[in-house]
Specification:
about 400 residues, mainly alpha, two-stranded antiparallel ribbon, about 0% strand, elongated
């Protein structure tokens, strides 16, 4: 089997397909890098605009309520709550102005503290049942959360930034430092399903090559068990494509680090696993989980591709069935209909790594560890089916 692996590696390592797959990974990961080159970063201006819009809306609401001559008790209470929020926005305006002025008069942490104070006020008001009177900041590229857990997340996030004296990195910042740029690609720019689609193309090419090249008869006559040949092909795929993806990530990290700076892997992501408690996950932890889930998903897709190749040597059939599996991982397929009921038990339920890791899926899932186990158990089951099929063929 090891000789077969060496043969396959020698045959495929410098193949045009392998080079194209590497280029595809690199283009996907460097997409926003190319966009950022030669352009001015306006993410800080967008943040300032978001603050200004919130302040303007709050001022307009206060002005409209004040114009009402005969206010109801509810209107009086709403006006009082909005006026109580106004000083926090004034402090935010002052802190932001001191940071972005041509001659800065404040620090990043001054802005963090102002945002934290505003978040704490919002949490108190929401707990007291006055959340509807809050003026929330709409950040570009980030969905607005109006619930209690949204306020808890704000406090947790800005509390972490304040404690560690870290500047907020906007979601739309194309020239984010390397430690943030790479995770941000998966968070905001590149769907994990697109990355998995590239793996599927490589799998289809590798597992159907003998049929397409007309060497299948030669392979079948080798004095080696067919299962060993198939397992060797799997090992070849892992030895080719996983390092290919890792190299693309490494090159992306170095290129963005040299151009935009290195940043810190301890930058926070805020999430809620139970819908009640806000928790912090660092970018380093998040990216480690992405890589772990990616490996489990690739192992499952590899077994699926191997099984399909035993039933059909057609490249198109192999890729299409892999694509259908990815379509089963979309929110449209899992969020409703019959798949929703079994989503937590099928591998596709865990392919959208970012949503799974941050517990943002619209379908039911188990824990991250359990999700990885589901993908691996299905992969093992498919390998067992391959073994049974090949054993029966060898008996004929």
């Amino acid at each position: 089997m090891f000789e077969q692996i060496k043969f396959d590696l020698k045959k495929n390592v410098w193949s045009s397909t392998n080079v194209v797959i590497f280029a595809a990974f690199l283009i996907l990961l460097l997409g926003t890098f190319f966009t950022a080159i030669g352009t001015t970063d306006n993410s800080r201006a967008k943040l300032t605009e978001s603050y200004a819009n919130a302040i303007t809306n709050l001022g307009a609401s206060i002005k409209a309520l004040k114009k009402i001559k005969h206010k109801t008790p509810a209107q009086k209470a709403s006006l009082a709550h909005k006026e109580a929020e106004s000083p926090y926005f004034s402090d935010l305006t002052m802190a932001n102005a001191g940071l972005i002025s041509p001659v800065p008069s404040g620090s990043v942490n001054d802005l963090n503290k102002a945002l934290l104070a505003l978040a704490q006020f919002g949490l108190r008001e929401t707990k007291a049942g006055h959340g509807a009177d809050l003026e929330l900041i709409h950040y570009d590229g980030v969905p607005l959360e109006t619930t209690l857990i949204g306020r808890k997340k704000d406090v947790r996030f800005y509390g972490y930034l304040t404690k560690h004296k870290i500047a907020e990195i906007p979601a739309n910042k194309a020239n984010a430092p390397a430690a943030a740029y790479l995770p941000f690609q998966f968070l905001y720019h590149v769907s994990p399903l697109v990355i998995l689609a590239v793996f599927i193309v490589q799998l289809g090419q590798l597992f159907t090559s003998e049929k397409r090249e007309g060497t299948i008869s030669f392979m079948n006559n080798l004095p080696t068990g067919k299962l060993k040949l198939l397992t060797a092909r799997m090992a070849t795929f892992l030895a080719l494509t996983l390092p290919n993806f890792a190299l693309a990530c490494g090159v992306t990290y170095v290129i963005t680090g040299v151009k935009f700076g290195w940043g810190t892997w301890s930058y926070p992501l805020v999430y809620s696993a139970d819908g009640h408690t806000a928790s912090i996950m660092t970018l380093g932890h998040y990216f480690t989980l992405v890589c772990g889930m990616l490996l489990a998903a690739v192992l499952f897709l590899m077994m699926l591709s191997a099984l399909v190749s035993l039933l059909s040597g057609n490249l198109g059939v192999n890729v299409v069935l892999g694509g259908i599996t990815l379509l089963m991982a979309t929110s449209q397929a899992l969020g409703q209909g019959p798949l929703r009921a079994v989503a937590k038990f099928i591998p596709s339920g865990y392919f959208d790594f970012t949503k799974v890791i941050l517990h943002q899926t619209s379908w039911p899932i188990m824990s991250i560890g359990a999700g990885i186990a589901v993908m691996l158990i299905w992969a093992l089951a498919l390998y067992g089916v391959c073994a049974v099929i090949l054993a029966r063929r060898e008996q004929l």
